[in-house]
Amino acid sequence: MKNSIFAVAATMIAATGLHAEEVLPTNVAFNDGAVEQSLSGVAGDAANGRIIVGDKGQGNCVACHQVADLADVPFQGEIGPALDGAGERWSEAELRGIVANAKIMFEDSMMPSFYKTEGFIRPGNAYTGKAADDTFGPLLSAQQIEDVVAYLATLKEE
Amino acid sequence: MRKLTGAILATVLTTTVASADPVDDNLVLNEETQIVTRTAAPAHVSDALDEVMSGWLFRGTETRAMQADDFDNPGMIFVEQAMDAWTVADGSEGKSCASCHNDIESMAGVKPTYPKWDEAAGKVQTLQMQMNECRTERMGAEPWKYDKSDAINMEAALSSVSRGIPVNVAIDGPAQSTWELGKEMYYTRTGQLELSCANCHEDSYGMMIRADHLSQGQINGFPVYRLKNTKLNGAHSRFKGCVRDTRAETYSPGSNEFTALELYVASRGNGLSVEGPSIRN
């Protein structure tokens, strides 16, 4: 009996992230554009996601989207729809799919794929104009995606 | 679900586009030269655009005003430097541009036809390549570096004497395959952001992308004096910046690829007036 309790505890620890395996960008399972499984195995931090969405050096989502909740971030673009209420329009899995690779939900979308490492034409090394080298990785890490998804889920229409 | 969102997106988009449309304004240079800043799209782009518009229409009131008068246009200082250089002999032959071409005003009408097929070179050449052909083959002088001050200033001087004349590059005959390469480049989504020229300048012109008001990315106004770096900038250097911003490996100014792209982009503006040196952010 004691033994089996330990076994259960060990499994639970694995599931909550101590030994969590990240899903690699090449291994993400899309289902109708949505991604059910957490990419990092660790719950997203909405406060950090809020920073990533507004930060030029991270998600820079405001380059294309307006977010009323980020009124402190100047110069919000208007290429995509305002993200206000995104957490009501979409499930968490759908949001994860959109942020990881929006082109699966929206065919030919102008929105960049934030969790993808293959299939680019002339990929560069960030904004240097030089060719990509072996430091090339996805635009956002697995955990950053989870943080952004957690933040988007909080965006409800007033 | 997807259809529904599409409908919501459509509403959001139509309401935001209106706020950043190009202005309704007329550009008259020095109170005499009427500049065509919008006109019907040429046949070869009419499937994508109804109207072609100069980048001037997308700039703020003060920037637009600066361009209307040569005394207020800082780009004209560089034009004057090049006009001086026009008559200065250089190279082993002891010749200046004026030795063969007389007044620079006699070159009115040249700029709007470039890039253009050059029979002797066997390829499409930009205006800067043509200038360097004269320098190396006829003057015995060193070529000017691509888009650097000597070259870009002279390009601006040649542009200034053609202001008001419609852009009219040839896209058929021997230039056609180059034009087609440029077109393919225009629609290819490059870099880690997978964005094409068309994504920004055909699908999204009039909208804000972060702090920038997207124009159609026309080059009738080149070379442009940018308030950002206070000098004249060439079309290839602008292309390089835009390609870099897609997180892609860029091409170099003066490369065959950018020459092809220049021909294609210039042809999208056939019918707009030559405007350079124009003023942009």
Automatic annotation (TrEMBL), chain A:
Keywords: Heme, Iron, Metal-binding, Signal. The keyword Flavoprotein does not apply. Residues 44-156 form the Cytochrome c domain. SUPFAM superfamilies: Cytochrome c (SSF46626). Pfam families: Cytochrom_C. The keyword Signal applies. This is Cytochrome c domain-containing protein.
From TrEMBL, chain B:
GO terms for biological process: sulfur oxidation. One of its GO terms (cellular component) is cytochrome complex. Substrate binds at residue 238. Residues 1-20 form the signal peptide. Keywords: Electron transport, Heme, Iron, Metal-binding, Oxidoreductase, Periplasm, Signal, Transferase, Transport. The active site is at residue 242. Heme c 2 binds at residues 197, 200-201, 242. Residues 81-167 form the Cytochrome c domain. It catalyses: L-cysteinyl-[SoxY protein] + thiosulfate + 2 Fe(III)-[cytochrome c] = S-sulfosulfanyl-L-cysteinyl-[SoxY protein] + 2 Fe(II)-[cytochrome c] + 2 H(+); S-sulfanyl-L-cysteinyl-[SoxY protein] + thiosulfate + 2 Fe(III)-[cytochrome c] = S-(2-sulfodisulfanyl)-L-cysteinyl-[SoxY protein] + 2 Fe(II)-[cytochrome c] + 2 H(+). GO terms for molecular function: electron transfer activity; heme binding; metal ion binding; oxidoreductase activity, acting on a sulfur group of donors, cytochrome as acceptor; transferase activity. Its cofactor is heme. Binds 2 heme groups per subunit. It is found in: Periplasm. Heterodimer of SoxA and SoxX. Belongs to the SoxA family. This is SoxAX cytochrome complex subunit A. It comes from Ascidiaceihabitans donghaensis. The lineage of its organism: Bacteria, Pseudomonadati, Pseudomonadota, Alphaproteobacteria, Rhodobacterales. The gene is soxA_4.
